[in-house]
Amino acid sequence: MxxxxxxxxxxxxxxxxxxxxxxLLAAYLSPEIVGVYALGTLAIxxxxxxxxxxxxxxxxxVLRTTGGMLFMRRYVIIVSALGTTLFLLFVIALVFxxxxxxxxxxxxxxPLAFVPSLAAIRMKNVAQxxxxxxxxxxxxxxxxxALLSLxxxxxxxxxxxxxxxxxxxxxxxxxxxSWYVRRAASHSRVKSExxxxxxxxxxxxxxxxxxxxxxxxxxQADKGLLSIFAGPAVFGMYSFAQSIARSAGDSLSTASANVxxxxxxxxxxxxxxxxxxxxxxxxxxxxxxxxxxxxTVLAAEYLLRNILSEEWGPALDAVRIMTIGxxxxxxGWSLTVLLLALGRVKWASPIKFLGVLxxxxxxxxxxxxxxxxxxxxxxxxxxxxxxxxxxxxxxxxRRTLVYILIAFSLLAGVALTFGR
Length: 420
Fold this sequence. Notes:
- The chain is an all-alpha fold.
- It has one domain (2-418).
- Helices cover 84% and strands 0% of the residues.
- The chain has helices spanning 2-28, 31-50, 52-63, 68-97, 100-107, 115-121, 123-131, 135-160, 164-184, 198-229, 232-264, 271-307, 313-322, 326-341, 345-357, 359-368, 370-391, 398-418.
- Helix 2 (31-50) packs parallel to helix 11 (232-264) and helix 12 (271-307) packs antiparallel against helix 13 (313-322).
């Protein structure tokens, strides 16, 4: 429980800081300008899905192989150069495609070009600390990164009332955290237990990257479609709702996956062994997800409605509903790690593809009703979770399934109660 809590703190602190800046943006700026910022983060999430997320899944395993360090060095060089270049090209495209009144705001996204490099550079250090179980160090690093980035970005936001503050907040968080974990891991060494050819690692990376991109499509393709077919205002409100509703839930999802990786990827395990190792983590993750979802709903209803103008009302209605999806999302992320440990992750790719297809009705529903789109988001996450369970039906026991059902039902009941 301690490791999961500390890992959750490590993931929630930067997301909480970003969510706070997003709320301040909504208080000072129009949904159209918030939509421009959301376009920038959408591109960053895509780059992370193709590089950062799959390497994070493999990093613990890579460090344990003699060929892994060379593979890691090549990864850092390629991702740093390619990620930065692609994001700069994306910003240039926005400048030409957006209306003239929003083109200048797109240029304020340029600091985000450093994010892929910073994430790649610290990958080895984070994995080293995870392998040594130094979760307090990781949480402490994120705490300082979040606080210091807010200390700079909030005054910038108040002074400039622009999305430059949000861009700076993300980059500063990444930079400070990268420096901290590099310093903390300077004396950490991981002993290589076996050898693995770079070609084998690259092949596995491509497979995991493809799966990660499908996961990105499942959670972000609806926003991509909205950015094309809906106006900036609708896109901005939908992105705001998703950011607030998913901050805590997504943090728990990555936290549970981070804790599970060193446990279940440390060697060959049978389904029974994986289940024994994973169930305590997932049960606690479900409990924390329910608490985080409840806190999010209460904050949206009693705090944000008193801070933001009435034009953000539809977005806050969507927050209440989207929060229900934090439980199946957390379970889905955890199941991905378990399927990777069992060598069955390839069977899950078609399931993720169904999640991507679901983005089409979600996006077009959002054009007319954010609340309807939010319900479809919850239905998608629940469907994907159930199908992933079908790939390895015995990987979770009845008690864990009951926990999931109770937590999901509790959040659904809360959402319906506040919706009356």
